[in-house]
């Protein structure tokens, strides 16, 4: 996932890009043609805020940040193709506008009046995905307000079923799939239409439709209820007072079904934008209905069949994506408003609609000259440009297409390149984007490729957070600065790094003090990629020691002749184990520890006067994905050519006396380890080991139900009955 150019790398960037780099380097060394690009997600509010605060030009601010961060990325030895784009480049946002135009032409981009989320701090509307469960903005953290405004939407709901189905075809972490399924919120049920009795006929409404997932409870219905913004509530002028948190009111009307007269209420727990904005109340089966009927003293009706029409219906929680932003530093929506023709697209040949340069923040409409245009359709002179810019999540919803063809101005990407290279094989990034970027990206990918089944990212690797050590007072929960003393009791916990918690570390400083390889090895070794990583400066020494040991081994070996002897079993085993790490489980921490073990072994051999130069060459190559600077220096000491260095070493056949260590698990719990010699069957040795353990614990009766031997690790799990 490409970064936002805030100005400085943070530890999360170091982690995600190091993981990605190690894997890319390994794949290239193993013979794959790897494309590993980097660009910049460069529109967004911080640039505008900097403009307001320091009177800076958002473009200048952004591009200077990009230059600085790119230098830091290169300093980390990250093997990216950097020659791509920033989303604020004119050549890029011309394509963002082209994506919008294509959607407009296909009826997938539209304007609508509606109740929208308004962020009072950032002074812009937000999409539903950008408001968290507590009603706060994903960016500013402000409590979001509701406003009635005309805004632009993208019709993601049209793809709800495809977005659900596609999840079955991708190799993604289950949590992300679950989050997306939940957000899409498919619900199969029925809508039921109840005829209303007389008073409402005069208002032009004849019946009331509700949505239910429990049609089986129909005969127990006691009341119907509509949301406060339902047309029935509106036409009767009924509203609920929020001051004394009024939960409901009787409308005075009834639905008449045969002998039954069912009262209709306005209830605050009925959501206006879901289903039909109306429900049937079944206190006997539904808790909330029970609570409401008790509070409103709704009498229960006699159980019995009701004569209505019933139609099967599927509902989704997913809402269309609101993309209008009333901000400056974003991609202008390429539309002109004409009093005759309505909203009209700017012709493709006239893209991009450029940002006005007379202003640096706030809505584009402030520039009156920029705003006034003639209609692309009827040529009427008195038209205005659309002044909203697009949500920056639109910019990031197709960028992998542009990586393939960044200079192309005729199309988002050449079709033959898309066909040849997409989808992305491996996408690495944070799980926090599960229902933001990763959902939008899948939607736009389907639109841009014209294939509803297409998925942008075959495999997704979500990395955990980097946590910093925080000290806070127990009673007042105040965060202490490093070295700060307090008379209160203090606790030490690991929390997400943040300025306000004084627990952050700056990669720039670390890079300066320790060097890139130390930083890389540290983040790779400290935790497997998918788990959170607790940053502790004290652990750096271990990594440093490893580097100097490897370096000493290179120095020792360089004076010995390179003789064509067999590789040590330990070396061959490490080569094999690395394939498991890079191709199966991505546990790069195990990758580093494999190398640490090998270094120990080779050091021992050298101290016994053995010539292991061939093994040392293999070690030097295997270090390349993890510590490229050390590896390159080693290669020059050992006389390994650049071309040879980038070829992954091949293992020799293991000798008769070789053995490999396996972890033994019993019912999923780790109970120790055992060695399997060359030619032995892993399962047999595991069972022998189990019997021995049982004997020691004096357990005589046990029965093996299953033996599980995963491909992804040297583990044997024995399940007992
Ligand atoms: C009667 C009933 C009986 C219901 C019962 C549930 C249990 P999901 O799965 O979320 O789709 N419902 C329908 N529209 C609603 C709205 N706009 N606001 C609030 N609640 C609404 O849930 C569907 C169920 O949620 C529907 O089925 C309806 O209550 C309620 F024992 O109908 B049910
Ligand atoms: Zn016109």
Automatic annotation (TrEMBL):
Question: EC annotation?
Answer: 6.1.1.4
Q: Which SUPFAM superfamilies match?
A: Anticodon-binding domain of a subclass of class I aminoacyl-tRNA synthetases (SSF47323), Nucleotidylyl transferase (SSF52374), ValRS/IleRS/LeuRS editing domain (SSF50677)
Q: Which GO terms describe its biological process?
A: leucyl-tRNA aminoacylation; mitochondrial translation
EC class, as a word, reads ligase
Q: Where is the Methionyl/Valyl/Leucyl/Isoleucyl-tRNA synthetase anticodon-binding domain?
A: 568-683
GO CC annotation, single: mitochondrion
Known Gene3D superfamilies for this protein? HUPs, Isoleucyl-tRNA Synthetase, Domain 1, Valyl/Leucyl/Isoleucyl-tRNA synthetase, editing domain
Taxonomy, superkingdom: Eukaryota
Q: Which reaction is the catalytic activity of this chain?
A: tRNA(Leu) + L-leucine + ATP = L-leucyl-tRNA(Leu) + AMP + diphosphate
Residue span, Aminoacyl-tRNA synthetase class Ia domain: 3-176, 318-469
Does DNA-binding count among this protein's keywords?
no
Q: Which UniProt keywords apply?
A: Aminoacyl-tRNA synthetase, ATP-binding, Ligase, Nucleotide-binding, Protein biosynthesis
Molecular functions (GO terms): aminoacyl-tRNA deacylase activity; ATP binding; leucine-tRNA ligase activity
Question: Where is the Leucyl-tRNA synthetase editing domain positioned along the sequence?
Answer: 181-236, 244-299
**Similarity section:** Belongs to the class-I aminoacyl-tRNA synthetase family.
This chain's protein is named: leucine--tRNA ligase
Q: What organism does the record attribute this protein to? A: Andalucia godoyi (Flagellate)
